[in-house]
Amino acid sequence: MPRETLLVGSPNSGKSLLFNRLTGLSQKVANFPGITVRLGRGELLGHADEVLIDFPGTYSLAPISGEERIASDGFQAALARAEVQRVLCVVDATRLGKSLSLALQMLREGARQGTDVLVVATMTDAFPPGGGAFDAAGLSEALGVPVFPVSGKTGAGLDTLRGALAGAAGAPVPPRYAELHDEALQAEAQDLMARFGAPGALLLRGQTRLDGFFLHSLFGGLAFFALMAVLFQSIFTWAAPAMDGIEAALAWGADGLVPLLPGTLLKDFVSDALFGGVGAFLVFVPQIFVLTVIVGIMEDSGYMARAAVICHRPLRFFGLTGKSFVPMLSGVACAIPGIYAARVVESPRKRWLTYLAVPLMPCSARLPVYTLLIVAFIPATPILGGLLGLQGLAMVGLYLFGLLAGLVVTSLVSRVAPSEEDDLPFVLEMPPYRVPAWGPLLQMALRRSKDFVTKAGAVIFAVTVVVWVLGYFPNGGKDLGASWLGGLGRWVEPLFAPLGLDWRYGVAILTSFLAREVFVGTLGAIFGIEGAEENFLPLADHIQASGMALPSGLALLVFFALALQCVSTVAVLARESGGWRLPLSMVAAYLVLAYGAAWVAFLFASALL
Amino acid sequence: MSQPLWALPKGQRARVRDLSEALPAAQAQRLRELGFLPGALVECIHRPAFGAPRVYLVAGACFSLEREMARRIYTEPLEESAHAS
Q: Which of A94-103, A264-273, A291-300 has the highest mean pLDDT?
């Protein structure tokens, strides 16, 4: 039975980086308080029988929020496990003040439960070489437990720590901690801080200068908008070569492989369902990768916390808090991590309002649909002297539309449904700025892209096969309109006729309620059957040839911007909000909203164009 | 004579005197755990306009506090700040 060590520490103490260093496991290092809400688990490098369990960062075992209660309860539950023999408590040597309360609470738990506690002091590299080094031995003597000075950045001290973890469990906690009261604990923390804390504030000068810019009322706001613009433009420009490459490889593969296959049925299946359906969705993986990397850089660098401060006042107007910014921005990548990230919002009401906003954020699953329709309908005209394209601008517009929709919903709901609950005020640590840990960041982006391909890909493959079978039979793909799919399509057509959409799009919309990107796969399979004699063609060309008018395209975009078409989001919402009521009401309400708004957009566009 | 932390001008330091009774117990405890203990030195580092949360340095770490919180922390101005260069 492997021996387990619990890794605990306050947010921004370098705990996640230490976990990565000790286990070599790719776990995300986020430079924002409380972002690691799920537990990490990893084996100590070179010692498979020593397991490290990474806990979410917390300032205290006395919780003030739902997130902290989860962490605190989880800690107590884990401590009760027989396998758990040690607690490894991370303190930030440069900012002992905020770490020591938790460390002393850990010693108290250790003394009461008979669990060993080791202390790791991180960021020791920030102390100036020569004079004034961190006094680990002194702190160890004062605490009565071993203290290991390490630097996650330079790797100093890590071998010693690894050796100690692989060796004997260490000495038990002095029994005096078991009786320590909260006030005495605070006094002791203050005393230790005075004796062993960094002289003056290390790291602070650079941080203060940068904050003077990023938190500035004018420049900070401008920097915020500039960074957001870079984010959205880069999704297009940086991912474009990879997307073109995948598209070309697919066309080459289809043209080369399909003629070699025996039998018309197999040829048609591979060409229509595999290359047409699944392939159409693979093209969008580079965009998801780029987006994840950029959002990760913002988290790791420490900018996310500044953005939360910048956004606090404006978001408060819409009934939210600055902390809602993180879940909302994560929601731009994917609503699922966004909903998990909403745990950083301590106030239950603000968290509930954040849940309402997150699924309206323009998530990466909408990206394939947006890209497809933009490429089909918007010309690639350069504007602003080539700095931005018309297509990029359309994408920015769609993103702003989703964001605005979320804010309008939360501000209306927060005003219509007032609450008597006391809100938790905004307190947020400003972590030091730092260079992101590129290895874990890229690994995470790769993992998320892979997840997207394997999890969403499995659904898309299944749906595509079903759609293809329904569309191909009973007449062997000769006449799509007379197929089973055509019959089903005509049955749902009246629903979508007011938006000027024919039955093919109706079927694709129906399947997209599993996951939005299925829309692309379904259309790919449908057009694949229709254009069976042609070579592999990009889907946007098929759409242009299908005779869909611009107003219908706009209606589709509006519909996809607002509707909650994602089974996984609904499931996660149900788990996080503690019931099905919220997610199911949201699906219904956003469906009505999406259909209504799409209809209005269609009428307006038809009248104007 | 005490004044709320929110009133502290940028770049000035003060000593925490106590926390408002109006603060819920859990929030007061959290503030103490973060370092806002009676006797602790705090400095206002950033004071953005438009009532945005302000940034305070305490015990070597920076925290951004909004008005509702910062005006419930009572401070007394430092004697030394009068003749500090």
A: A94-103
How confident is the model over A241-267, as a mean pLDDT? 82
Closest-CA distance, A193 to chain B, in angstroms, reads 8
Q: Where are the domains of chain A?
A: 3-202
Cα B52 from chain centroid (whole Å): 15
Centre a 10 Å sphere on the Cβ of residue A247 and count the other Cβ atoms it contains: 17
The pairing of strands A116-122 and A84-92 is parallel
For A212, which of B24, B26, B46 is closest by C-beta distance?
A: B46
Contacts of A202 in chain B (CB under 8 A): 60
**Range among A125-134, A158-167, A239-248, A565-574 with highest mean pLDDT value:** A158-167
Residue A427 with chain B: CB contacts under 8 Å = 30-31, 34, 63-66, 69
Query: Given a cut of 70, is residue A494 above it in pLDDT?
Result: yes
Other Cβ atoms less than 10 A from the Cβ of A404: the count is 13
Q: Above 70 in pLDDT, residue A384? A: no
Q: Which of A59, A198, A207 sits opposite B30 (nearest CB)?
A: A59
For residues A259 and A514, the model is more confident at A259
Q: Does B4 touch chain A (CB under 8 A)?
A: no
Closest-CA residue in chain B for A311? B52
CATH of A3-202, one of 3.60.10.10, 3.40.50.620, 3.50.30.20, 3.40.50.300: 3.40.50.300
Better-scored residue on pLDDT, A234 or A456: A234
Query: Which range is least confidently modeled, A107-116, A284-293, A488-497?
Result: A284-293
Query: Can you give the residue ranges of every domain in chain B?
Result: 3-82
Report DSSP state, residue A360: G
Å between B37 CA and nearest CA of chain A: 8
- Residue A456: its pLDDT value, please? 65
CA separation for the pair A101, A112 (Å, rounded): 17
Give the end-to-end CA distance of chain B in Å, rounded to a whole number.
23
Residue of B nearest to A189 (CA): B33
Q: Say whether B55 and A59 touch across the interface (CB within 8 A).
A: no
| pLDDT bracket for residue A36 (50, 70, 90) | very low
Residue B62 touches partner A, C-beta closer than 8 Å: yes
Q: Do A220 and B48 touch (CB under 8 A)?
A: yes
**Cα separation, A16 vs A501, whole angstroms:** 49
CATH class of this structure's domain B3-82: mainly beta
Nearest CB to A94: which of B24, B57, B60? B60
CA A448 to CA A294: how far, in whole Å?
13
How far apart are the C-alpha atoms of A364 and A516, rounded to whole Å?
Answer: 10
Express each pLDDT in A459-473 by its tens digit. Answer: 677 777 887 788 777
